[in-house]
Each structure stands twice: as C-alpha cells, then as structure tokens.
C-alpha cells in the first residue's frame, strides 16, 4: 500500500511538473513586446523588438515614458529611411505618370491621324470606302473580270443548250 501511495505521489508530482513546464513553454512562445523593471527613478522599459530603452515616470495618474538618446536615434534613422523611400516612390510615380501621359497623347494622335497601313478602325466614312483608291481600283478590276468571265460562261451554256435542242 505504501508503495502505491509513493508511486501515486511521484506520478502526481511528475504530472504537475510536466503541466508546469508545458505552461512555461507555451508562455514563452507568446512574444512579449515590453519588459519592465522598477527602479528608484521610475520604471525602465525595454522594447524587445527594437531594443529601445525608455525611462517611465508617474505624472499624475499616467505613466509617461521617455526614450533614451539611442532610442531617439533609432526613430530618427527610421524617419530618414522612410522619407528617402517616400521620395523615391514619389519620383517613380512621377515617371510613370509622365510615361502614361505620353502614351495617352500618342494614342490620341494616332486615333486622330492614322498612319497608312496602321488604321485599325472598323469602318470608315462612306465617302472614303473600305479601301484606299488603289485597292478600290484593283477590286473593281477583279469584279469586272469576274463578271465578264461569268457572262462568257453563261453564253457558252446557252449556246450548248441551243445546240442540244436543235439535235
């Protein structure tokens, strides 16, 4: 019986320690942004992401934190970096806007004054026709030739028909 109580006690202690270590592991997995330590002058706050140390003091019912000189430098360097990035992006945006304006202007000019051979419009005014003058002439010649050939063909067919009827 003593052994079972002893075994149960050891088992309970092992379970408790295991649960406690599991809780500690899960607690460590959650990132803590600030670590604070009480001092004579107030609270020292460490930003675990940036490494900036601030001294926090009580002013009335509020806790006011003042970053260290190094922390201010970090912020100023980040501001400078962001200003440079912003300036670069603004210049890129101006360049893109200028290129777009040029393309739009070129497209407008092309739509108003089409270059020969590059006219992509679906229809032209009826006065101009579908083709240029040379193409219209070629088409008319081809149609005239076809018409003459068809007339000859039908006249031959009529002659053959007459010949069969005579016989």
Task: Lay out the secondary structure.
Elements: H1 2-29, E1 34-38, E2 43-47, E3 53-59, E4 62-67, H2 69-112, H3 133-166
Antiparallel strand pairs: 1-2, 2-3, 3-4
Using DSSP, what is the number of strands? 4
Domain count: the total is 3
Mean pLDDT, all residues: 77
pLDDT < 50 runs, ≥5 residues: 1-14
Coiled coil: 72-106
Keywords: Coiled coil, Signal
Signal peptide: 1-24
Q: Can you tell me about this structure?
A:
The relative contact order is 0.04. The chain is α+β, with helices and mostly antiparallel strands and 167 residues long. The protein has a four-stranded antiparallel sheet with strand order 1-2-3-4. The chain has three domains: 1-30; 32-67, no CATH class; 76-133. Residues 1-14 have low confidence and may be disordered. The termini are far apart. 63% of the residues lie in helices and 14% in strands. The protein is built from three helices and four strands.
């Amino acid at each position: 019986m003593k052994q079972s109580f002893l075994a149960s006690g050891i088992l309970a202690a092992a379970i408790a320690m295991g649960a406690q270590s599991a809780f500690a592991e899960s607690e460590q997995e959650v990132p803590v942004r600030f670590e604070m330590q009480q001092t004579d002058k107030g609270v020292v706050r460490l930003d675990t992401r940036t490494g900036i140390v601030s001294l926090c003091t009580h002013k009335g019912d509020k806790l006011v934190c003042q970053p260290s000189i190094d922390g201010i430098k970090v912020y100023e360097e980040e501001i400078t970096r962001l200003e440079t990035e912003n300036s670069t992006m603004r210049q890129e945006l101006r360049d893109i806007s200028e290129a777009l304006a040029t393309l739009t202007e070129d497209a407008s000019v092309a739509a108003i004054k089409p270059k020969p051979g590059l006219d992509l419009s679906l229809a032209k005014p009826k006065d101009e026709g579908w083709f240029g003058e040379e193409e219209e002439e070629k088409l008319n010649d081809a149609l005239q030739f076809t018409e003459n050939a068809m007339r000859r063909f039908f006249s031959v067919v009529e002659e053959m028909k007459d010949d069969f009827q005579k016989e």
